[in-house]
Amino acid sequence: MSDIRHSLLRRDALSAAKEVLYHLDIYFSSQLQNAPLPIVDKGPIELLEEFVFQVPKERNSQPKRLNSLQELQLLEIMCSYFQEQTKDSVRQIIFSSLFSPQGNKADDSRMALLGKLVSMALAVCRVPILECAASWLQRTPAIYCVRLAQALVDDYCSLVPGSIQTLKQIFNTSPRFCCQFITSVTALYDLSSEPCHSSHRKRLGQGKDHGGAHFPFSELSLLCL
């Protein structure tokens, strides 16, 4: 991994991010030939944190910041990678390596990028990403799942008026993701008439001003049954 890192240091941020996905694709494809569930060690995780999430390896270094255009280009690179990779096992392990929380300073960047990637996948109907996100939601601690659900609700119920219709189509796009997403959304809202005691939950229809939009909870829940 050290040789790969040295070659990536000579590249600009976007080409380094694309290249690290290429190298890890080869690495994990080889690992999967020898073991159905290879152990992901720290080497690949550290490469992804440094060259995708822009978290410097040296402690005293300042983190790099992508501008808005570069971030959009990074999302397009990732969308293309997951769409073009035909082996689900490789997609899943790369997605897990990218977005499984590590309990370190990269987690905020990791979660922010995950929210934007899944939001983009919903908008442009990238099923492989939604399937990977469904697996991620199934195995990840609830506190992180709630953060992803909140990001998607904000995007599709608050940010762009009328885009809530896209959420109503996710059952047809990816039933697995729809069901896992609904499970996470229930942690955001109090669906009972009893007082809400959880600090991160809110009553459905209250909280943020959604510009007249409401979350289509009942419609999506019925589809999942």
From TrEMBL:
InterPro entries listed in its UniProt record: INTS15
Top-level lineage group: Eukaryota
PANTHER family named among the record's database cross-references: INTEGRATOR COMPLEX SUBUNIT 15 (PTHR14540:SF2)
Protein name: Integrator complex subunit 15
Provenance organism: Sphenodon punctatus (Tuatara)
